[in-house]
Amino acid sequence: MQMKNVLEFLEKTTERYPHKVAVDDGRVLLTWQELQDLSQRMGTGFCKLTGRGRPVVLLMEKSALTLAAMMGVVYSGCFYVMIDPAQPVTRVREILEVLEPEVLVTDGAAREVIVQTGFRGKVVTVRRLIGEEVDESRLNRIRERSTPEDLLYGIFTSGSTGTPKGIVVSHQAVIQFIGHFVETFGLTSEERIGNQAPFDFDVSVKDIYSCMLTGATLILIPKPLFSLPSKLIDFLCEKEVTTLIWAVSALCMISSLKGLRYRVPETVRRIMFSGEVMPSKQLVLWQKALPAAEFVNLYGPSEITCNCTYYRLPGIVADGDKIPIGRAFPGRQVFLLDEEGQEIEEPSAAGEICVSGESLAQGYYHNEKETKKRFVLLERWGETGVRCYRTGDLGYYGEDGLLYFAGRKDFQIKHMGHRIELEEIERRMETIRGLDRCCCMLDEKKGQIAAFYLGDMQPADIRKEVKELLPAYMIPGRLIRTTRIPLTKNGKIDRGYLRNQLEVERV
Fold this sequence. Notes:
By secondary structure, the chain is of the alpha/beta class.
């Protein structure tokens, strides 16, 4: 019988492994039974605060108790949205305006942020929710009404209009994808998955629900360790982590700062990476340090639930080799379309990567216009009205028949594992008094966002103000004051000219 709610993952695993450690955040350990009990307590509390199907915002850092709160939201028949408390208040406020939630959960540390947003709904602490008595009959009634199409979570990404977009994903989408993911890579209850990604980043979905389906242990790696390579490696060794499903930037932080020379995490037997193109030089360092480990390149935007393609590396790559993004996961169809909407099949011809089949997101919450723009109905394989997601990424087939990533079609980039609309950064920066015009681009050689600007402000002053407007991963690493931002004959910014100027500035 097919599952219709991810809580079936949790409950079946709790039946099999009630006393096995489910999650370890370095301070708190919860067994599967403890996680389920806490989740049901919190779920009972949420039932009293909001109605079924509503968003519940968790303004908290990731932790074992945060995970219990997330599952508590699910028990209440609602969907959870994680927001990093370190996000600028302006951005938090905008996310709340999109969601219009009735309930916001905190561990107490983000109280001041909540006040500054002007949120007028109900604010509840995790401590209060833990004190609830489980109301089984109420939770059972909610479950009986559940459907596979119910929303499970929302994740906010950058928006070209300057307003964040909320991608909403159903239970069915996660159940289908995680089932294929676990089977494809042979994940078992013996895994100890080292979670790098914050819970507001969809890489964490693979960590959380792979553990929940198999009974593996989820090891939450404290954020401060990602600026301390030696301590991070020690932590991986101490916790005997076996699997890393990480953003490329996190892996490169360790290898580029010579962390693997200090110590090798020898229990790691599987490394999966995504979010950006993996530099072959850094990948080789990992492959040589862990010659028996499996390495997998994963590709896919949040809108299709984590990933749509994968590629198992057959051996050590050569410096400069281009790594394929590979083949589609079961249940997915991945194809290329040209500018006229015709499918591309011949090698080397670039086209937009499109995805259909299982696990597409429901769309963008309260944003029908953007949903219709990206989630389109096409005629495919003799059928009409096939729902597809247009990624905006370009790809091509190699002579080997595998798919390769070839950059972006528009002004969206991948940076530090996040998909970012450059236009959002530009619009934000142009609200700063004294800064008249701005144009941003990704400096791929330096691995940083560069911003050309017109105005009287000094870079140090801009940096100070932009920290109040954008999350850290969207802040330009380089600010270049210029006397002109040229336009093309069509009246658009001449980004090609500025890219050439970036080359000159670099020299």
